[in-house]
Amino acid sequence: MVDLLFEGPYDQVVGARRESVDTAYRPGHAAGTKMLTGAVRFLFGNDVSDMLSGYRVFSRRYIKSFPALSREFETETEMTVHALSLRLPTAELEVGFKDRPAGSVSKLRTYRDGWRILKLILGLARRQRPCQFHAVIADVFTIVALALGLPVVVEFAHTGTVPRLPTAVLASAIMIIAVLVLLVSYILESFKHMRQEQASLAHLGYSAPSRGAELAPVSLVNTASDRAPRP
Predict the structure, then answer these.
(1) Which of 31, 105, 178, 183 has its CA 20 to 30 Å from the CA of residue 49?
(2) Residue 24 backbone phi and psi in degrees, to 5
(3) Whole-angstrom distance, CA of residue 81 vs CA of residue 124
(4) What is the mean pLDDT of residues 198-209?
(5) Which helix (H) or strand (E) holds 16?
(6) What are phi and psi for residue 18, nearest 5 degrees?
(7) Pairwise CA distance, residues 73 & 89, whole Å
(8) 58 and 101 Cβ atoms separated by less than 8 Å
(9) How many C-beta neighbours within 10 Å does residue 160 have?
(10) pLDDT tens digit string along 65-123?
(11) How far apart are CA 24 and CA 157, in angstroms?
């Protein structure tokens, strides 16, 4: 993995787990991993195959641009989305995955950690894709407003009166909320661009990984621990 990082050069090399025995994954974990990875691929547009792998190699410039705000098993998701947001060169290398050693205990709690990872993905979508995220909410409000307001408009066109005034006011208020949601998304989009520019400048402040470069060492992080990685 280190050799591949230098050959690229890449900023991240992910060990994509491949089962060497049928019992490597606990029941439901393989399906959960595919579901969460698919959600990231759908929201952020990438071809990563094992988003939750904690076996990774990073360049120095990746570490210096990564804020590491998450903890525990959400960290891998944040790492993946960070690389996608900044379009950092990333590669995958298949690694063997087998049963845990006898007597060891997994720190992963299936439903609790799966729910926390899903919430993080939605939170990252809200921060990294604000226009798309809020557009969905605005569309829902718009559909509700049209469903309530169109009959009132049709009735007004035929009779010239608005007998259902409360419904008309409610539809107008909901449509105003939809417009405000869209305006908020444009403001958040501007903040997102500023954050990405700052992270990109931090990333570009270091040279690409090279065996001969003095300022480009490689950091190895196993994110299966309870603490977030430190550079």
Answers:
(1) 105
(2) -65, -45
(3) 8
(4) 86
(5) strand 12-19
(6) -130, 125
(7) 23
(8) no
(9) 7
(10) 888 887 777 888 889 889 888 889 999 988 887 777 776 666 677 677 778 888 888 88
(11) 67
